[in-house]
TrEMBL record:
<comment type="similarity">
    <text>Belongs to the cytochrome P450 family.</text>
</comment>
<dbReference type="InterPro" id="IPR001128">
    <property type="entry name" value="Cyt_P450"/>
</dbReference>
<dbReference type="InterPro" id="IPR036396">
    <property type="entry name" value="Cyt_P450_sf"/>
</dbReference>
<keyword id="KW-1133">Transmembrane helix</keyword>
<dbReference type="GO" id="GO:0004497">
    <property type="term" value="F:monooxygenase activity"/>
</dbReference>
<dbReference type="InterPro" id="IPR002401">
    <property type="entry name" value="Cyt_P450_E_grp-I"/>
</dbReference>
<feature type="transmembrane region" description="Helical">
    <location>
        <begin position="12"/>
        <end position="30"/>
    </location>
</feature>
<dbReference type="GO" id="GO:0016020">
    <property type="term" value="C:membrane"/>
</dbReference>
<keyword id="KW-0560">Oxidoreductase</keyword>
<dbReference type="GO" id="GO:0016705">
    <property type="term" value="F:oxidoreductase activity, acting on paired donors, with incorporation or reduction of molecular oxygen"/>
</dbReference>
<dbReference type="Pfam" id="PF00067">
    <property type="entry name" value="p450"/>
</dbReference>
<protein>
    <submittedName>
        <fullName>CyP450 monooxygenase</fullName>
    </submittedName>
</protein>
<keyword id="KW-0408">Iron</keyword>
<feature type="binding site" description="axial binding residue">
    <location>
        <position position="450"/>
    </location>
    <ligand>
        <name>heme</name>
    </ligand>
</feature>
<keyword id="KW-0472">Membrane</keyword>
<keyword id="KW-0479">Metal-binding</keyword>
<dbReference type="GO" id="GO:0005506">
    <property type="term" value="F:iron ion binding"/>
</dbReference>
Amino acid sequence: MLASNNGLPQLLAALLCCFIISYTVSLIRWRIRSRGRPLPPGPRGIPFIGNIIHMRQPELWKAHQKLCAVYGDVVHLSMFGEHTVVLGSQQAISDILEQQSAVTSERWQHPLIELSGQGFNFAFFPYNHRWRRHRQVFSQHIPLTRPIPDEQILIQHQYASIFLRKLLTEPGGLRDHIRYVFSATIVKVVYGIEVADYNDPNVALILRTLEGVQGFDSGRMLVQYLPILRHAPLWVPILGPQLRELAWRRAAADEVKQVMFDKTQDDLIHGRPNTSVLASILQELEEQGDVDLTEEHLIAKNTCVTAFEGGADTTFSTIQAFFLAMSLNPSIQKKAQAELDAVIGPHRLPNYRDRASLPYVEAVFKESLRWHNVLPLGLQHCAGEDIEYRGYFIPRGTTFTANAWACLHDPEAYTEPDCFLPDRFIREGKLDPGVRDPRDFVFGYGRRICAGKPFAEIEMFLVIAMTLHVFDITPPLDESGNPILIEPKFTGSFLLYPADCRCTIKPRSAEAEALILEGVQSSDGPAA
Ligand code: HEM
């Protein structure tokens, strides 16, 4: 008894010594590593949990903007010992994520990515050889720096024409039609599969994978905070159902990859025409002969589903915002339509070749991207090495949060940033190159820049130009026929959507209606 009483203080003293030694060693290591350079400035955090309060704010982009107003455009935050640096200006984003892209293209890794079935999506891959192989395959077929192939633009145009027809026959189904046009286009381009309707089983199947992203975006999964919980038994309340849900998501993602792959392969085996991205990849592999087919097929499957996932929600949300903006701003709509009438005339639909001759429509497109920035904080990058910026030390593993929203709502770059004003991009009837281009922010940065940027641009431009050419978009009406004024609001935490984009959609004239019904035949193709 006496011995144990004497032993306790000794044990405590030993523990204290261990703590002091390990603390001193880590302090010396940090000193050597940082060479005495400080971390960027930022608000003081609570011991251990750090700046959790600053990182769990509603509309985080606005909260970060306020922090930057106090501490400058490079702000350090930490949570449970993990470092985050908020980049709040164009300069800081460009210096770190563009100029130092070779060492700032890592991604944050978390077991939840695999657990939620998102392990196929190369947008979440670490910056390594495997990511490079996937990105290479993607860019060979959906180019980033070369022009998008004519046959892909033709598909985009055809599906945009079908979109117009759907709007004509069922204007109340706007959201479903927007979902349809972007999903169906990418399924056709990537797999060569025709999708007739929003309810098509192929689309439904692929949309199930998207739910996987929403699962880990919502922050409700307990394994997100304590990964070891993934080993918990399934009967544990709350956790068990979540683990079952994650297993279901993994199975859904595997099913999507395989079923879509099999359909395209089946076309090739049976000699059915299929000029899709996947068919081209498979044909190239066959020609190459001596390759590890299991590995290459896996890359092909991953790449194709990533293309769908990357493009589906982002475009879906942007075009909803475009409709909302048009219903709220009739004079802007009229101006864009006047340009279309003058350049295109009443006898055909606009096509991609017209883009350069339609600066005001282009300005509407740019303003839609800016006004409603779908990914206000983009996708986080991480530092692959220790780096220095403006004399500050940024340790390896630091997560960078680039506040695209702040750059796109900066009153010095855009007067009245909350207003939808495409004229800000126009000077003397032409696009003004001196105005900050929203595309430099919404599609991300450096080596991780959105791989589908040119494809997405063409697709959205076509939908916007073709819609404005043939439809009038006005506010929705209540039961007595009075206009309902929609207040623009956006919901979501990572990817934002307009909360309400109801509007009234009517053909501009009998001629416009005829053009819609003529559809694809009325256009003279998508030539680049
Ligand atoms: C409104 C449309 C779109 C927006 C705003 C958008 C935005 C973004 C952003 C912000 C990133 C992260 C970039 C970074 O880490 O810095 C990204 C990545 C990506 N996007 Fe898009 N995107 C759009 C459409 C598309 C489309 C249509 C596709 C496919 C055809 C696509 C495919 C991808 C892929 C594959 C990545 C991962 C890049 C990587 O990590 O290497 N995106 N996109």
